[in-house]
Amino acid sequence: MKEFDLVVIGGGPAGYVSAIRAAQLKMSVAIIDKRATLGGTCLNVGCIPSKALLDSSEHYENALTNFAAHGISAKDIKMDVAQMVARKDKVVAEVTAGVDFLMKKNKIERFVGLGTITGSNEVRVGEEVLKVKKIIIATGSEPIELPTVPIDGAIVITSDHALSLKKVPKHLIVIGAGVIGLELGSVWRRLGAKVSIVEFLPRLFPSSDRQMSNLAQRLYEQQGFEFMFEHKVEKAETKGKAAIVTVKTPTGETKTLEGDAVLCAVGRKPYLEGLGLDKVGVKLTERGRVAVDFHSYQTSVPSIYAIGDCIDGAMLAHKAMEEGVACVEVMAGQAGHVNYGAIPGIVYTHPEVAWVGMGEEELKEKGIEYKVGRSFFKPNGRAKAMLEGDGQLKLLSDKKTDRLLGAFIVGARASELIAELTLAMEFGASAEDIARTCHAHPTLSEIVKDAAEQNGGWAIHQ
Ligand code: NAI
């Protein structure tokens, strides 16, 4: 029987980060994952492969639509789906190997197989029984499947399959206008598919600022996305090679859509299979996630902790990594902490959409008085040089103290621009602090400064 200070079950962003931090803090650590490669959903079938395909498809679309304006003529531009998918697989292989290297570097012992908690200080994986002081559950999440939308992996698919399609669908029907629907919808639209998105809710990004989500929707529609909001998918069936999706319209009528692929992207649920939580007495929340104390990440069993997608909160890799560090630091008697008010959300479409903090609707709901500062991509010199004039940035700050409360970006490189604003939120900066910070010229980051100046009523360039 092997003994460890800590066993982490799940090798995704939450799990591998917590394992490394624990090793740095001198714990003896083992990590268990059912996959042969570490990195979880994010590295294997989520964030990284989708970004690889988003980058490839963006290059293709740029070659078709923007090269001429740059004075480049390229004839007979062709794309090769198999090569794009193979490159994506290579990127995945490299990043997962990178995590493997980090495990070796930090002397973390790896076990491949399904981990089962058989006691408050015991974990089994295959034939191995591990005696442990502490256990972290970091088993992540899996796609939600609708009973009336049976997945066949060929015509009716989840995000896992949409990352490895062999050919471009003619008409892809996406169920759910969430992050996955928009990102993978973008990949296949850029490569030539007609993409229709059926969404139950009345708008995009319900937790974000409405005006900015409306702007994103308008830009997506200009690209050819077809949205059906307030439509509920009732069922999806296949008829030969066709997919028939039955939807209920806002007026209660039923209509059918026909395509050759249906992507079901209606959210994810915690993956807790085979863990044996009921046997050891680990309690779940009403929504089926592992219940934890959000300071220590301890579950109802004191030696068992949980972090990442399997606990409450946004299912985001960066949120999971923060929890991995905080959980282990608190375990080691340090002051680990996650600031849930400063976790950015990003949609890697084009233009990108990124936000942090509260939007206007949330601020009004909470009765917080605020000031708005807005800037546009169009007048920014770097954006012009890049042909990236579409987009806006909005800052919301406290009316009395000027402290930054939220930031919303729709535009090129929003995923990078949001980092400065997240740091500002973390440091409790005011909008004026941002406005009076020197931003390099010419950069897109000047759009951040512009909005902060406008927030103070003295925008120089807008
Ligand atoms: P999501 O929760 O973002 O969106 C699912 C959408 O499906 C919701 O808007 C919901 O109203 C809609 N829906 C549910 N049932 C429906 C029905 N019967 N008919 C029509 N619409 C229906 O979930 P998604 O996109 O599957 O992503 C899962 C998780 O993965 C999310 O938590 C997301 O944050 C995370 N993720 C994050 C990424 C990023 O940070 N860039 C990328 C991909 C995923």
Q: How are the secondary structure elements laid out?
A:
Layout: E1 2-9, H1 13-24, E2 29-33, H2 40-45, H3 47-65, H4 81-105, E3 109-112, E4 115-119, E5 122-125, E6 128-137, E7 141-143, E8 156-157, H5 159-162, E9 171-175, H6 179-190, E10 194-198, H7 210-222, E11 226-228, E12 232-239, E13 242-248, E14 254-259, E15 261-264, E16 268-270, H8 277-280, E17 304-306, H9 317-331, E18 345-347, E19 352-357, H10 360-365, E20 370-376, H11 381-386, E21 391-398, E22 404-411, H12 414-426, H13 431-435, H14 446-455
Parallel strand pairs: 1-2, 1-6, 2-3, 6-17, 8-15, 9-10, 9-15, 10-11
Antiparallel strand pairs: 4-5, 5-6, 7-16, 12-13, 13-14, 18-19, 19-22, 20-21, 21-22
Helix pairs in contact: 1-9, 3-4, 3-6
Search tags:
462 residues; alpha/beta; FAD/NAD(P)-binding domain; Enolase-like, domain 1; seven-stranded mixed β-sheet; 22 strands; globular
* CATH homologous superfamily assignment of the largest domain: FAD/NAD(P)-binding domain
**Major sheet size, sense and barrel closure:** 7 strands, mixed
Give start-end ranges of low-pLDDT stretches. Answer: none
Give the helix/strand class: alpha/beta
Q: Which CATH class of the largest domain?
A: Alpha Beta
Q: How confident overall, as mean pLDDT?
A: 97
Q: In CATH terms, what is the fold-level topology of the largest domain?
A: FAD/NAD(P)-binding domain
Question: What number of structural domains do the residues give?
Answer: 3
- Radius of gyration, whole Å: 23 Å
Question: Level of helix content?
Answer: 25-40%
DSSP, total strands: 22
Portion in strands: 25-35%
C-alpha geometry: globular
